[in-house]
From TrEMBL:
It comes from the Bacteria. This is Thioredoxin domain-containing protein. The keyword RNA-binding does not apply. Keywords: Redox-active center, Signal. Coiled coil: none annotated. Gene3D superfamilies: Glutaredoxin. The keyword S-adenosyl-L-methionine does not apply.
């Protein structure tokens, strides 16, 4: 049995250890957050017309992120979803990325022989709300869109569905992303 002075020393040592553990936990957590943010870089965003040209010359698909500056969910997708390592890797391998500000009525882009503002382009792609993710073929043809916030797991599934060209034969609802992923490529055929 410990005497009173010895038990106070033990209590002090335990208290000091717990304090140091708490400090290490907080500092370690901050360090992990810093590493995660450093890893959370953005994809290479291209101008819309440039994205179409790069996609055409490389055979990669185009992912169009339709957004509005005031849209909180759009910012969340940009900061948390597009910057996730897995999504960025999938995008870099199979897609050229571009963003369209749906509220922009001044800029004009050339698309399929027409001159359109980002607002009219968004309507062409059936983007009625924001955020909307639009996927185009390497030649710029509309493949599909998905409205609303999409988390990283679902976005990777959507990207795999398009990049593997499963959309040609399987409805998205029946697509099994475990069978194929963004690193798989089916035989390339012109779109």
């Amino acid at each position: 049995m410990l005497s009173r002075p010895a038990s106070r020393v033990a209590e002090t040592m335990i208290s000091d250890c717990l304090t140091w553990l708490a400090v290490l936990f907080v500092v370690g957590g901050l360090g992990a957050e810093t590493v995660e943010r450093a890893a959370g870089q953005q994809p290479a965003w291209h101008d819309f017309e440039e994205a179409l040209a790069v996609a055409d010359s490389t055979g990669r698909f185009v992912m169009v992120a339709v957004y509005a500056p005031w849209c909180g969910w759009c910012h969340k997708m940009k900061d948390d979803v597009y910057s996730s390592t897995e999504v960025r890797q999938c995008l870099a391998k199979n897609f050229v990325t571009t963003r369209l500000n749906r509220d922009d009525t001044d800029t004009v882009y050339q698309y399929q022989g027409r001159r359109l503002t980002p607002r009219k382009l968004a309507a062409t792609f059936r983007a009625e709300g924001v955020p909307t993710t639009v996927l185009l073929s390497p030649r710029g043809g509309y493949v599909m869109h998905l409205s609303g916030f999409i988390g990283p797991t679902r976005l990777r599934s959507l990207l795999a569905y398009v990049s593997t060209r499963a959309y040609r034969s399987v409805p998205y609802e029946e697509f099994r992303p475990g069978a194929m992923n963004c690193n798989d490529r089916l035989r390339r055929r012109p779109d």
